[in-house]
Records
---
Amino acid sequence: MKRIFTQNGPKYTSLLSRMWSGSSGHSPPKYTEKDLQRSLSEKFPKADVITVTDISGGCGAMYEIFVRSADFKGLSTVKQHRLITETLKEQIRDMHGLRIHTEPPPK
């Protein structure tokens, strides 16, 4: 049977964990909060508020998004969220999850 643990100084490291996480154990997120915010700002220029928060501890796996835009007036919540996911469809492929909050501006 092959050894799946290697001695790394006083610690043992699993070969699988090294393969899974890369050599450093941490890779930068493919997309940042600013990248997502830029995409949303381009799609929703009338937006009063656009906030994007990485809620995965900085690894870029999960984001929380809030958008308040006049573009959402008269649309159901599902249609509002669909506009967000269509805008970020390329970035969403590399995420674990996404929380979306949308609303039209107050009257």
---
Amino acid sequence: SHSNRLSRFLPSSILYQEYSDVAINREIQRQQGKEPGHEEDGSDGTPSPSNLSPSSSFRSSRGSAFALWQDIPDVRSSGQLDNFSNEERKLQEAKFELVTSEASYIRSLTIAVDHFMLSQELAECLGTQDKQWLFSKLPDVKDVSERFLQDLEHRLEEDILRFDVCDIVLHHCPALRRVYLPYVTNQAYQEQTYQRLLQENPRFHSVLSRLEEDPICQRLPLTSFLILPFQRITRLKMLVENILKRTTPGSRDEDTATKAFNELKKIIKECNSSVQSMKRMEELIHLNKKIHFEGKIFPMISQSRWLVKHGELLEVDTQMMNISGSKLKFPTKPVYLHLFNDCLLLSRRKDTWKFMVFVHAKIGELKVKDLSQKLQGISGFIFHLQLCEGQQLKHQILLKSNTESAKQRWITAMFPSDPLEDIEQASENVDISQVQCIKSYKAQEHDELTLEKADILHAKTITGDGWVEGIRLSDGERGWFPKTYIEEITSRSARLRNLRENIRIKCVTQKL
């Protein structure tokens, strides 16, 4: 097999799930300015011993060392290491990590295909269609990755000291796109199929449990293998970005690294929008059956419409106040909001699955006033919403939520600030508050942001009940997430370096 050929260079016993965990934790340290030797790096580019000694090769939970490029016997015995500046060494390490991580990834993919997908027992309790949805084009992904690794290994063998990898990444991008796009697009079906099989097929459940207990899986479930291609393509972009950050400005290598980075970014964007448009359309079709309009024809399904946020709030009825003891009391009744990118619908629930819309308005014709001061006699978090038609007031309503974050999230969803301005503000070379994701978070609602470990974000709003609205520096995506998933980057020099790196990447990619 290709992946064993270079075992003297590449760690073979490590699964990708564990490899990426350790690598990402190291990246978090670096971005917070806490990496070993970070402060002591000589300004003249001489390596600080603590940063580049073999002992800094980080260890996995099972104690096996992950190989660093400088620890390879061929590199050590070449007598050339001292001729490399600190930055040059870091560049070679970044390139080497791309190769070793690909080897580790293929090891995990091989288990996914050989141990799970090709299992005779598993095949016997799956229909053809279920098997197709569950494993999709996994063997194709593995084939393309093996060819990719083979080219990387050849390059490594040719010149272990001064090898480059970005031209190889660029060359393989069309093949990567060919297999990753359908695999990632199928992910929604994959998840649904997996859940359904677990619930409805007891045999699948018992066979799967037995397969997962095999030592080869190292206690990892099938789902952690199925999600690998999605994680790998985003990780690959990050690895190329790390190489790009360390490449000499204006060099030919910078040009190649930038092209590779841009191609990977395009693939990821295509994957995301393909998944998104599929989900959005399914959601609209589903909602169309549930939402009813009183006597009005309202064409719900449209290619250019999607759901931004939905949920229940309480309408405060100021007309029906009563006095209980010495206190004013305002009765409330539930109202359901469906906010789309182009309009807002207010409805009452008829039963669990039906909504009767009593008023709607275009997004541009909404006005909101945040009543942050508690109104006498009303507890909770209140805002006043007006729905207009042209200049005419069509309907107004006093809405109440139970938490501060719920109120803030509704207001920002109805009146998002200009993302361009936000990005400009976050890209100016000025010190802005930065937070970093320390454990990955999967968005639960439409207005939330899925976070990957090591993402750096500008925190725009932090609510008293522990929610943050942030803008990711790398792509300008924005959304809400719980405060417990992030840590503030307190080192000013680390924040400025993160900004500088981000601006440099933006500049070179725009130049193309």
---
Amino acid sequence: MNVEEEVEKLKEEIKRLGKVQDDGSYKVTFGVLFNDDRCANIFEALVGTLRAAKKRKFLTYDGELLLQGVHDNVEITLKPSPAAAATTEAVAKN
């Protein structure tokens, strides 16, 4: 699996495990992602995939390197897709 495929799978898992926000983004903590059995089976290097997604500006979180235990409560925010953002803006205007 290449990096782009892993990032897409990560986005799907964040949507599955996270909570949708008013702006169309999704939030999940690192601990929830790290301790999820399905994620453990998909991602050999979850932290590396998170860093790749952050570098591509799909998501945000505080810090550079997340460590299990120490950073379990760090919130990871998956930015809304352009289509979701446009829908949210349209609803807000009405």
---
Amino acid sequence: MVVGQFSSRGCVKVFDLCPLMRGVGVGQTITMFTIVGYYAALLSLAMRYFVDSFQYTLPWSECRSDWDCVDSSKASIHISNSTTTKPSAEFYFTKTVTEQFSDLENGIGIPNYQLVLCLLVSWVLITVLVIKGIKSSGKASYFLAIFPYVILFGLLVRAVTLDGAFDGIRYLITPQWDKLLDTEVWYEAVSQCFFSLTVGLGAVIVYSSFNSFSNNIYRDAMIISWLDTFTSMLSGVIVFGVVGNVAYITKKNVTDVMKGGPELTFVVYPDAIAKMPTWPNFFAVMFFLMFILLGLGSNMGIVTTILTSIKDRYPGVKIWKVVIAIAVAGFCCGLVYISPGGFYVLDVVDYYGVTFPTLVLVVLEAFTFCWLYGVNRICMDIKFMLGIKTGIFWRICWGFLTLSILITITCMQVFKYKAKKVPHGYNVFGWCLFGVTVLQVVGWAIYATARQPQSSFGSKLCNALKPTDDWGPESEQVKRNYNVTVAKRKTKRSRIKTLRARVFKNVSK
């Protein structure tokens, strides 16, 4: 947030502070485009369920003649003449909505036309909200960000009053200390923070770049971080309250009922709503409306990030042309994920094209900001911009702690790598997607080095590590004052000779 607001640059152009690493921003933009394809696809599923929620009898609450299941609307799923205990909500999701394949041996199939229409509507809404630029999307965000809280608190009241809800909530808040030794837990925790706060994906830099130069970014960062944590906990209580209710009704353990990924939203929740004795349609409508609003807000942020990266590079291009191009490309990609084999592809793309490369790129981003540019330089920028002196806690975190943890988790994840259980070609495709994203760093580093005017390779490389001549605040007057501050810093820094002293200086003063 600091570098975005300070420079008024997007997630690619912000690397004017170190042109050698511009590929990190390019890689993050590619990652965001990868995400927007399946985010919109999940939004289309929510739209399908939202429309279905208006039917007098919820379509997933009862079994059909060709399903070997039990009605989700029943208080208990124990039926003696049934060979399965799967609820009708699960069959509705896999057989009717997604028509899901059991594997990818026969390809991904052709998507359901109803989902195609929902995907088209999703992209039309996203386009309308973003096409006029950040001002229009910013106004829409007030509603898209605030109204879901109204629904969340309504669902919270209902969730905690369900039978067995506190069994689920107790499971949520009861620590399992042995899990702290599992690197997979730390990997998932870091990934969750990245996606929840959109850290390391470029969106934070883009949105903060539209702030006024003197905006109190420290206050904003604290509010956003704490509010995000509160929202996550609130959502967790609602989810596990509902899961606890399903476990109570079906006489199962919470762990047996709990599902991850899309199945939590489109199987567990619909199943629980179908079991509600009063107003199941109302709660279904409210839940999927909330999901749609949150999905629109997330997709707007992603599209805006991609749009800003392109506009920074090609400022003469019309916004509406870029937005429509993103929408068309995103719609075409989304068709893959709503196909019968789409969720298997989504799992591959999410790991190889988003989660894993994001971890690698954020390590490089942290290294670039905190060492190549320098913690001390960032703190100088903060003091110049806000008049705030950065404390030792933040300096140690930025300079050592955060980077060390990220590197450790990344290395452990590499050592524990296991190929996805899909046909070999899909894993190959995944690694190609990872390569295209991460190797942007190498390609742009070569390009940035080659463009330097010096004759020797060493001189070119050193110059590519330095901020560009126009790096700094957007205002010319403020930029001149900043250049004076930088010149004074260079004079003072030139007196520090030893490497040890430079390392200490980077994070201590």
